[in-house]
Amino acid sequence: MNRRKNRITACTFAAAVALGAMQIMPAAAIEQNLIIFQAEAEDCTITSGAQAATKVYNDEYPGYSGEAFVWAGNAGGVSFDVDLKEGAMYEVTTRCYSYLGDRLQNLAIDGETVSTVNFLKSSDWEEISFGYFYMPAGKHTVEIGASGSWGFMLYDTVTFGYAKMPEMNIDPTPCDPDATAETRSLMKYLTGVYGKQILTGQQEIYGSGHDGNYEVEFDYLQKTTGKLPAVRGFDFMNYNPLYGWDDNTTERAIEWATEKNGIVTACWHINVPINFTSYTLGDEVNWKDCTYKNYQASGGSFNTANILDKTTKERAYFDAAVKMLAEQLGRLQEAGVPVIFRPLHEAQGNYGRYGDGTSWFWWGDRGPEVYKELWKLLYTELTETYGLHNLIWELNLYEMDNSMEWYPGSEYVDIVGYDKYEGSPKNWGEDPATTIFLTLVDDTADTKMVSMAECDKIPAIGGMVDEGAWWLYICPWYFSGDSDANNSAELLKEFYNSDYVVTLDELPEDLYTAKSSGSTSKTTTTTTSTTTTTTISSDITDPDLMPGDVDCNGEVNVLDAVMLARVVSEDTETGITEQGKRNSDLDGNGKTTGDDLRALLKVLAGVK
Predict the structure, then answer these.
(1) What is the rounded distance in angstroms from the CA atom of residue 89 to the CA atom of residue 34?
(2) pLDDT in tens, 83-137
(3) What phi, psi does 60 have (nearest 5°)?
(4) Does the N terminus or the C terminus of the chain have fewer Cβ atoms within 10 A?
(5) What 8-state DSSP symbol labels residue 227?
(6) Are 544 and 178 in contact (CB under 8 A)?
(7) pTM for this entry
(8) The pairing of beta strand 449-455 with beta strand 473-476
(9) Do the bridges between strand 126-135 and strand 391-396 make them parallel or antiparallel, or are there none, so unpaired?
């Protein structure tokens, strides 16, 4: 939905904290079936400082509807009242004309500002969205051009309605076409739970932190909540050509998946020598003389762009580092362990946010074009050169206007991760960061799962559910001491024991072996009645086929029948994926028809 692409603001109604000035571009009107209130601006309550008009002084602005428009001078705007039947995410749009220049405009609910938008100077009437925000059931007053607005705007119409939230119906097919059966099984589970529940996660410390006790975070969570996280974060940084040592990361990852049935995610803080010019390949280098910072901050001589040239020393070093990484990932593959792999993370590193034009890490310090080629190179090396197909590829992105410049393409990415920390870009507290979530969902056209791959403070689960911020998993960084200083025991207990949250003990036993997620062994079901024989066909050449699983969530139930009925009726808004279409063809004739729907209904009803 393009409105979110334009950097909406969204926040909890209870907090009513504006996220700061956002630039909003023209947006389409709220869809008709979602509208609750719509009116000419002059028919609303005109607030102090504004007036109904047909001219501004002697200037005419043709094209408005109704008998007039509302001219907000130095202050003022319009307001209206709504009586909501349910708490939900809502949206306000206005058809307006920013005739004087760029103007900041506030939207307030019951007197509290919930959105601040920069309306760019326009040469015609435009539909502008104030974004999405949660409102509880009951009576409320909505005010456009609320206190603090810059004024000098023309308002033609106002529209209030339900926000059109993303469907989050993601194709479970991994970007790697040769992904292992275990990897396909995990992808099937992840896409099935996405949008319905949130997986708990926790990053372990690396190196020799906590005096070598890698269970500090997990022992604390077990003691505090009675549960363990579903996802455990690892880091392969210590396997490097410079000063590396084996801290048994690989063994712990294998144990987590094979003995505890947990999900593994891993990053790769790979270092380079600061004085790369004088470095001889194969030499050991003290860790103090190495860095993963950008060259501007470290003063280093490693040129990331040179990795793309096969003849350079940078490329030789990168190849050596990848070889060491591949050895460890290969051990995981041999053990049947898939990995949510997040290499070269935070590449944009808030690029430009602090005004210095630099990223945080060396792998992003030569800009997005070099970075994208570096990501593709790593993907190709691991999948083709080393034959690693146990990886679910996760790319870090940010929510800024230029963030998609760092996106290498959907064929190289399975999950988009966001790393949320206090002060980046705001102090979030327990806010669900819905504006970030929806921006990333929209940036990838709702085709990729979106996670909170790192954070310090966990958002409140109630806010995430209310606002539809269905982060795939939330993975706090490791502790700086022996307890979680960022999250209170009460918050952790509420989060870990919520019905909307998945913990380690709640993961399915067949997480890595589900036949529906990659096995080539398919079942043919035949249903007969007194007059016809209905056969649900299965193509054993399609490892992902699960006949009847129209919504691709790993189950066949009445929701699939509802979705299939909409498909048969040629409803274009079902959001069905290509895999869903294949699963819909129950009789195997290459078409989706009413016969397929009847076959599915009979199976669900147990009719023989």
Answers:
(1) 11
(2) 999 999 999 999 999 999 999 999 999 999 999 999 999 999 999 999 899 999 9
(3) -100, 150
(4) C
(5) -
(6) no
(7) 0.79
(8) parallel
(9) unpaired
